[in-house]
Amino acid sequence: MTIVPIKTKRDYAHTLHRIEQLMEAKPGTKNGDELDVLTTLVEAYEAKHHAICPPDPIEAIKFRMINSA
Q1: Which tens digits make up the pLDDT trace of 45-60?
Q2: Contact 22/34 with Cβ under 8 angstroms?
Q3: How many structural domains does the chain have?
Q4: Is 1 inside a domain boundary?
Q5: Quick check: helix, strand or coil at residue 58?
Q6: From the CB of residue 45, how many other CB atoms can be counted at a distance below 10 Å?
Q7: In sequence order, what DSSP letters do the residues of 11-50 get, joined into one string?
């Protein structure tokens, strides 16, 4: 198991692919530990590169008023 930081979109895609391969890993196993570490790295990468900002409060209220019919 070689784990490296996610620095590029290619690294990100590769890590997501590896996570997909490990999805059935049991906790506490070597693969389970690798899955834990990789998901933590992906969460950090996504928080930095794909952050979702909270909506403007007024716009959120308008959206709710229009879409609550």
Answers
A1: 999 998 888 899 999 9
A2: yes
A3: 1
A4: no
A5: helix
A6: 19
A7: HHHHHHHHHHHHTTPPTTSHHHHHHHHHHHHHHHHHHHHS
What does the pLDDT look like over 20-33, one tens digit per residue? 999 999 999 999 99
Cβ partners under 8 Å of residue 68, min gap 6: none
Q: Which amino acid is at 25?
A: A
DSSP label at 8? S
Amino acid at 46: E
pTM above 0.70, yes or no: yes
Q: Is residue 22 part of a domain?
A: yes
Which one-letter amino acid corresponds to residue 42?
V
Inside any domain, residue 4:
no
Q: Please, are residues 66 and 43 in contact by the beta-carbon 8 Å criterion?
A: no
Surface-to-core class of residue 6, CB atoms within 10 Å of its CB (0-12 exposed, 13-18 middle, 19+ buried)? buried
